[in-house]
Specification:
Blueprint: E1 5-7, E2 14-19, H1 29-40, E3 44-48, H2 51-55, H3 72-82, E4 87-93, H4 95-109, E5 115-119, E6 144-149, H5 157-160, E7 169-174, H6 185-188, H7 192-208
Parallel strand pairs: 2-3, 2-4, 4-5, 5-6, 6-7
Antiparallel strand pairs: 1-3
Helix pairs in contact: 1-7
Length: 210
């Protein structure tokens, strides 16, 4: 059975289902901040954890993150357990968004999801810019919004400019943001709160147009 954390109004016309990144749980500071920012825009947000992360709460020691492909069935099961009847956007932070992206086209074609949201997409592993994770993004048909920091070490603005991505994908660039979308205020003039508000406003507009 999937356990969810909810934020935002229960009767919202749009639900956003978010999975966590590889190394931090669904109630991490970054996930909580993103969920609250989206909820402030009137979106219903549901967060869930993959089994390996949930096990870290009870088992001794840490289980390493599995391959993203191996947890695709867990994400599909979470969608089914959520049972959203209105407009559903699936996604997540880093690995969570990547997993959702690998399910998005099939589910969108079946009318089960309206769109995809990736917060800090891991375009390549850390320190390995030659190992791209963009193959399925080249032909994506599901409407997608990727929110990316311009200095994300897993896909900076300069790097992503050279990728071939589907026209169904929109990218919101957050100036000087890192993989958690956090800027250096002294460099950029922006705060983390500024970027969260920009992210949430963009997601609201994106969802309204689906």
């Amino acid at each position: 059975m999937t356990d969810f954390l909810f934020d935002g109004p229960a009767g919202a016309p749009v639900t956003v289902l978010l999975a966590h990144g590889a190394g931090a749980p669904m109630d991490s500071a970054a996930m909580m901040a993103a969920a609250r920012a989206l909820a402030a825009e009137g979106l219903r947000v549901a967060r869930f954890e993959f089994a390996y992360m949930a096990a870290r709460r009870t088992a001794a020691g840490k289980r390493p993150p599995p391959r993203a492909e191996s947890v695709m069935p867990e994400y599909a099961a979470a969608i089914a357990a959520l049972g959203a009847t209105d407009k559903l956007v699936i996604g997540g932070k880093s690995m969570g968004g990547r997993v959702a992206s690998m399910l998005a086209d099939e589910l969108h074609a079946a009318g089960r999801v309206a769109g995809l949201l990736c917060l800090g997409y891991p375009f390549h592993p850390l320190g390995k810019p030659g190992q791209l994770r963009t193959g399925h993004l080249m032909q994506m048909r599901c409407p997608a919004l990727i929110v990316q920091g311009t200095r994300d070490p897993m896909g900076s603005r300069e790097e992503v400019a050279g990728y071939s991505l589907s026209p169904a994908i929109r990218i919101l660039w957050l100036e000087d943001g890192d993989h958690d979308l956090r800027p250096r205020k002294v460099v950029s003039g922006f705060t983390a709160a500024d970027h969260l508000r920009s992210m949430a406003s963009a997601v609201k507009d994106f969802a309204a147009g689906l």
